[in-house]
Amino acid sequence: MEGPTRDLTRPLLAYGTLICSLFLVLVAWDTPVPRTDLPTILTATVLTACWIAWWVDLHPGWQRRSGLMAVFLTGLILLNLWLAWCSPLFGIYTWSGYLFIGYAVRGMWPLIVLVPVAAVNAFAQVGGWVTFARADGFVIYLAVLVCNLLIAETMTLIGIRADRRSQSREDRIDVLAEANAKLAAALRENAGLHAQLLVQAHEAGVLNERQRMAGEIHDVLAQGLTGIVTQLEAAESHPAERDRHLVAAKRLARESLTEARRSVQALRPQHLDAARLPEALDEVVRAWAGIHGVRADLTVTGPARPMLPEIETTLLRTAQEALANVARHAAAGRVGLTLSYMEDMITLDVRDDGAGFDPDAPREVTEEGGFGLHAMRERLTRIAGTLEVESEPGGGTAISACVPAIAIGAA
């Protein structure tokens, strides 16, 4: 769409050149310039000015209606031809017809419409109708017309290309504006999603921390208290070994208290403070065997290497929970633990020859127990680990914990 400045420039320039042409006609009235009578000249001039004013100044919205613009251009060309017939001095004005071609016609149509406009201009430039009285008048007119067409066609092609480049830039600007609007909307949506994710992450963090603390309470306090109760009950049932059971109960109480303090501070288990995982597991296994009087052996395969604290802590807690389950439920005579270091994973297998159970009907989680396997699975899941359980009544139990082997410094 053309701006208001260009819309005003065309008619003002047309009015100006029309007045100048009329002025020259009046000034040169006594010269031998071919012309018609004054009333006809004035009538043609007024009608031309009114025609431009009606179609361009008074009805600018008609510019978008191609049918009305065809009527406007046809009438304008005929009026210009009338003026050029009245006097060739109106050739100063008739060239403004090129301007109105750009105003009223789009696409490649200007290349066609400019032919009659050039014909009118050439007619005025050769001196009007008297030129055709000469023998070579028509040849002169054709030569001038060809020159007009060459110039007009060239300038029109340049203008069309410039308009297309301008339209292409405007289209790209529109596309960019639309893309920017979509990007702004996406950014606003992302900001909302980000805020929502922060809330969800906070809630997930709170839930994860609750689960961690539940596991820590079960692994540390519940196991410790269970062991203490077991030792005290054994002391009551076997007076001859009373002192040994009391010493074991005291040791369990001290270890549980230390572990509880460290768990609250979110530190590693006490056994891992000054030892690597195999040594810490060996210490736990020997202590458990000494307390419960059950043979327990630890086997380590593969080159041991330090892992992330979360990995080692989870495996140690899993071993402690598995041994606690053996002590509470299995009535086993022997327990074997195997810690295997592989290239991309670490496995911990715990096997016993105890009473076993039906894995398809595990114990319900109650205030009295049943949380052990569930706690182990939750703890392993938090570090992308898995837990497999194989057992049958009277056939012992085997559990296998598998975790990713993420060494210190690899994360």
From TrEMBL:
Function: Member of the two-component regulatory system NreB/NreC involved in the control of dissimilatory nitrate/nitrite reduction in response to oxygen. NreB functions as a direct oxygen sensor histidine kinase which is autophosphorylated, in the absence of oxygen, probably at the conserved histidine residue, and transfers its phosphate group probably to a conserved aspartate residue of NreC. NreB/NreC activates the expression of the nitrate (narGHJI) and nitrite (nir) reductase operons, as well as the putative nitrate transporter gene narT.
Coiled coil segments of this chain: none
A Pfam cross-reference name: HisKA_3
Entry's transmembrane regions: 12-29, 38-56, 68-95, 107-132, 138-160
Species this protein is from: Actinoplanes hulinensis
Alphabetical keyword list: 4Fe-4S, Cytoplasm, Iron, Iron-sulfur, Kinase, Membrane, Metal-binding, Transferase, Transmembrane, Transmembrane helix, Two-component regulatory system
Protein name as catalogued: Oxygen sensor histidine kinase NreB
Top-level taxon in the UniProt lineage: Bacteria
Gene3D superfamilies xrefs: 1.20.5.1930, Histidine kinase-like ATPase, C-terminal domain
Residue ranges of every copy of the Histidine kinase domain listed in the record: 315-407
Catalytic activity line of the entry: ATP + protein L-histidine = ADP + protein N-phospho-L-histidine
GO MF, one annotated term: kinase activity
Main location: cytoplasm
Cellular location(s): Cytoplasm
EC number: 2.7.13.3
